[in-house]
Design a protein that fits this description.
This protein folds into 2 domains: 5-131, Four Helix Bundle (Hemerythrin (Met), subunit A) (Up-down Bundle); 141-343, Translation initiation factor eif-2b, domain 2 (Rossmann fold, 3-Layer(aba) Sandwich). The longest helix has 31 residues, at 109-139. It has helices spanning 32-40, 47-61, 69-81, 88-104, 109-139, 165-174, 191-202, 215-220, 246-255, 287-290, 331-343, and strands spanning 5-8, 11-15, 26-29, 145-150, 178-184, 207-210, 226-229, 233-235, 240-243, 260-263, 269-270, 291-292, 295-296, 309-312, 319-322, 325-327. Helices cover 40% and strands 18% of the residues. The structure holds 5-S-methyl-1-O-phosphono-5-thio-D-ribulose.
Length: 351
C-alpha cells in the first residue's frame, strides 16, 4: 500500500511526489499554509488527492482555538480554493468541510476541531472505498487478456489510495485477468514516467513506458485493448477535463476503434458545469516546458504555452466508470442519477 497522504499525530504527512521515483521522502505539515503551498507546488497532485489534502489542511488550520472562528475558517477555505483551479474535487472537499463547520460551529472549540478532523478522515476513507468500488465496475469492462494504455498518473498517488484508472487496472488483475500496461510519459511534468511507472513496477504489473508521441503508433499496430484515464472534472454532459494530452489519445482511440474509458469517483462530477467549455483550465509555469528538472531543453526566452489540462468531448468517451456504476451516452441523465446516489448517501456497492 502506498501512503500518499495521512493524518498522523496531529499533522498531515505526505509523500513528496516531486522527488519520485529517485527518492521516497515523507514530509510532515503542522501549518495549514504549508499544506496549501504543497498543493500548489505539486508535492501532492491528482484530483482526489488534492481534495483530501485540502480537507486535512482545513482541519489542521482549525485544530487550535480561534478568537473569530467564522472568519478564520473562511480565510483557511479561501486559501485552499486558490491553490489549483481545474480539479473539482478540491472545491467539493472544501464545500463538505464548510457544511460540517456550519453544522458544528456552535460546539465548544475542541469538539468543533474534532468534528472537522473526523470529516476530513471520512473524506480520506471514502475516497479509498470509492476507488475500490469503481475498480470492480471497471474491471468488468476489461477483456481477460488486455493491454491497457493509461495517461498521467491516476493511481494511489493521485488519490487517498488504490487509484481510479490504476484502480481499474489493479482490480482487473486481482480478478485474475492477464494485464499489461502501456504508460505514456506525460510531458511536461512526467507523471506517467515518474509516478505511474513507479507505482506499477512496485506491484510487478508488467508496464511499458512510452513517450506521448508513440501512442498512435501502438494503437495502429492493434496492440491496445482499451485506454483508461482519470479525470479532474466531468461536466454535466459528460465532457471530461484531464491531464493535457488526454484529448489527443481519445481522438486516436476513436480512429482505431479502441474503447476509451474514464474512471473517476462522483466527487469529480460537476453538475454545475453544463459542458467542457465552462471548465477552468490551469496554465502552469513555462519552466516546466523549457526544462527537464534543472536542465534547459529550449532556447532562453522562447514563447511557451503550458495548459495543464485539456477537455475531451463526451462523444469520444465509451464509458465513465464511477463507484456507483458505469455511465454511457447519453451522459446527462445517467451522471445525474449517479450523483443522486451519492447525495442520497448510498453506500458504495462493490458487488
Ligand atoms: O496536474 P496533476 O498531476 O494534478 O494532474 C492529474 C491528472 O490529470 C489526473 O489524471 C487526474 O487528476 C485524475 S487522478 C485520479
Amino acid at each position: 500500500m502506498i501512503h500518499t497522504i495521512e493524518w498522523r499525530n496531529g499533522a498531515v504527512v505526505m509523500i513528496d511526489q516531486r522527488l519520485l521515483p529517485s527518492q521516497e521522502v515523507y514530509r510532515v505539515y503542522r501549518d495549514y499554509r504549508a499544506v496549501a503551498r504543497a498543493i500548489k507546488d505539486m508535492v501532492i497532485r491528482g484530483a482526489p488527492a488534492i481534495g483530501v489534502a485540502a480537507a486535512f489542511g482545513i482541519a489542521l488550520g482549525m485544530q487550535r482555538p480561534r478568537r473569530q472562528p467564522d472568519k478564520a475558517f473562511d480565510h483557511i477555505c479561501r486559501t485552499f480554493a486558490a491553490t489549483r483551479p481545474t480539479a473539482v474535487n478540491l472545491f467539493w472537499a472544501i464545500e463538505r468541510m464548510r457544511r460540517c463547520f456550519a453544522a458544528c460551529k456552535a460546539k465548544e472549540p475542541t469538539r468543533l476541531s474534532r468534528r472537522l478532523l473526523d470529516e476530513a478522515l471520512a473524506i480520506h476513507r471514502e475516497d479509498i472505498a470509492a476507488n475500490r468500488a469503481l475498480g470492480l465496475y471497471g474491471a468488468r469492462l476489461v477483456p481477460k487478456k488486455a493491454r491497457i494504455m493509461t495517461h498521467c498518473n491516476a493511481g494511489a498517488l493521485a488519490t487517498a489510495g488504490y487509484g481510479t484508472a490504476l484502480g481499474v487496472i489493479r482490480a482487473a488483475r486481482e480478478a485474475g485477468k492477464s494485464i499489461t500496461v502501456l504508460a505514456t510519459e506525460t510531458r511536461p511534468f512526467l507523471q506517467g514516467a515518474r509516478l505511474t511507472a513507479w507505482e506499477l513496477k512496485k506491484e510487478r504489473i508488467p508496464t511499458t513506458l512510452i513517450t506521448d508521441s508513440m501512442a498512435g503508433h501502438f494503437m495502429k499496430q492493434g496492440q491496445i485493448s482499451c485506454v483508461v484515464v482519470g479525470a479532474d472534472r466531468i461536466a454535466a454532459n459528460g465532457d471530461v477535463a484531464n491531464k493535457i494530452g488526454t484529448y489527443s489519445l481519445a481522438v486516436l482511440a476513436k480512429r482505431h476503434g479502441i474503447p476509451f474509458f474514464v474512471a473517476a469517483p462522483t466527487s469529480t462530477i460537476d453538475l454545475t458545469c453544463a459542458d467542457g467549455d465552462h471548465i477552468p483550465i490551469e496554465n502552469r509555469d513555462p519552466h516546466e516546458v523549457t526544462h527537464i528538472g534543472d536542465q534547459a531543453i529550449a532556447p532562453k526566452g522562447v514563447a511557451v504555452a503550458n495548459p495543464a489540462f485539456d477537455v475531451t468531448p463526451h462523444e469520444l468517451i465509451s464509458a465513465i466508470i464511477t463507484e456507483h456504476g458505469v455511465a454511457r451516452t447519453p451522459y446527462t441523465r445517467r451522471l445525474l442519477k449517479l450523483c443522486k446516489a451519492t447525495s442520497a448517501g448510498s453506500k458504495v456497492r462493490p458487488h
